[in-house]
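Dear support,

We are seeing what looks like truncated structure output for some complexes. This example has two components. We would appreciate it if you could run it in full and send us the complete token output so we can diff it against ours.
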Amino acid sequence: MSKSAGEYLSSGPRFAEAEVIERIESFRKRRPRLLDDHITLAHGAGGKASAALVDAVFLEAFRNPSLESLGDGAVLSLPGGERIAVSTDSFVVQPRRFPGGSIGELALNGTCNDVAMTGAVPSWVSAAFVIEEGFRIGELKDIVADMAAAATKADVQIVTGDTKVVPKGAADGLFITTTGAGVIAAGRRISAESVRAGDKVLLSGSMGDHGMAVMLARGDLAIEADIHSDTASVSPLVELLLAAAPSTRWLRDATRGGVGTVCNELAQACGCGVVLEEERLPVRPMVNGACELLGIDPLYVANEGKFVAVVAPEEADAGLTAMRSHPLGADAAHIGEIFPEPADTVVLRTGFGGTRIVDMLVGDPLPRIC
Amino acid sequence: MSKSAGEYLSSGPRFAEAEVIERIESFRKRRPRLLDDHITLAHGAGGKASAALVDAVFLEAFRNPSLESLGDGAVLSLPGGERIAVSTDSFVVQPRRFPGGSIGELALNGTCNDVAMTGAVPSWVSAAFVIEEGFRIGELKDIVADMAAAATKADVQIVTGDTKVVPKGAADGLFITTTGAGVIAAGRRISAESVRAGDKVLLSGSMGDHGMAVMLARGDLAIEADIHSDTASVSPLVELLLAAAPSTRWLRDATRGGVGTVCNELAQACGCGVVLEEERLPVRPMVNGACELLGIDPLYVANEGKFVAVVAPEEADAGLTAMRSHPLGADAAHIGEIFPEPADTVVLRTGFGGTRIVDMLVGDPLPRIC
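Here is the complete output from our reference environment:
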């Protein structure tokens, strides 16, 4: 028999019971509903509106087991028994070049990371370019060089591609869609279904660097800060983690919507409560300052080289140590824990001992971030 | 010792020898060079400018064995020995709905066909959407329903996807990028390298239906004609062909750039001469009439459900009969033959006994056709 939320929470995070139950009921088993007639920027922000759009339009039409897992990538079982992971992402970031990277590196690393989150090692990438008439070929060459360099660094091959040109005004410069694939080693099972209460939540590094770097690069905020995108292929870090913590349950890179939204997806997928400790959330001071000035919670700011991992409690220390041994994981932190309740919900335990519910991202404070 | 072009051609198509040699020299071993500073619509048309762009920008940066085969898709060899084919395409067709289909069906079928051209059976597709803010969700649902119906018909699953939204004016409605994958049966080798003189060139059906349907649907030509896009997944037809003609050398769907451009790619890839018989080229009267009015050669008009196959001479009749047994191949025809010379060149033998060189498509008479 499962405890009531109140009973449970008395041994977990502290809530006023009535408030908790009311909030839980309102959050439980709900996926947001699509109420709009037209696409808004929020539908592309990776938060609540995106989830509603995906549910109402894409899942409804395409329904099949791979899609329903709602992961970053699909896992395909080949007739010969091998499993490969496939993931796709379009990149529309503006500006196309920002401190720490460009749309080229983003398009390569972002898709490799989605593949890595399935437990696969990304090996192949396809790249499709939609280019606006009049685009400078010199800039295209630079972006393609960034992709090539990122591919070399990530040890993947760009194996096929496509180029479409649309008339002046029909696209804003350049959009790149990459699809990545890689083989999943036998025996690896990364799935929200394997998440259980007591598991630990790790984050591979500091939050919000990419989103803030792009935001400031737009220049219309009149804030100057030395913030660089964290764009990187995290596959080597994933491999280190999985070697040290082979029971790792679940992985997700915290891109659009940030760590807050990703943890909500986790909570909804495993039916558990995800309790985060505010004091343990790694945020660089510069990023924190910029977020404060803009009134944006770093929990919702996009990352392009960070992931959330749910690991078995007995392997958490080893996993964390392994990640910290790699430059990409130097700031890795144990940020929270899985509780059976509040179901489907993310709770943040604040530094003052209070708690608050962390919803999915609502609206789109940072459009065209990737 | 190889014959001279003149010697050879005296037993093949008839040319004035001096003219032939001059033309051959100018076409031989040349891939077009990129001389532009900015992207033009021609760079996306699938013809000469596209080839120059791909060579100068993408191949130059990404160079690797899969890309260099320049096929419709990449063939990936998995550690366990299986081979899978992967192909990607962006779809930017305007208008999004036209007689015979929509961008949804196109995005599904087009990518499945690219996969099928490697000898694989397409099984999985990913779909990434770039959507303009303000796009009507009702239209999105209709397009997605078209994709789902096409997927069911083609027996493929849409396994993963992505949605990005860009601000009003930053894209023209909707762009869809699909990536397809499928397993290649053991022993199948579809490659331009296996093409040899004497092989027969088959075309799976009539030319130009898709391009003309889209062109007329734009409405600015004031031509009314009952022309429908041929968008379809041709995988079943490929399987029939490969069963009847198991030595099939090479396959390519004749999309952007049309049959003329595809045959040039073939000639360049195998180093042979491709001689087409004008009288055997299947074109529907309506399409032919519209092309004449517009001054466009149907050889360069895009198809979305037709492919060129190079088959062994002794299997040509069986292959043709097999294709004609399927509704998608009812108009399949034996359109030409492979000759050792003129190397890298496509020659059309006209109805009057004359010959002309068929170059790759130059410029873009029909932008945003797919």
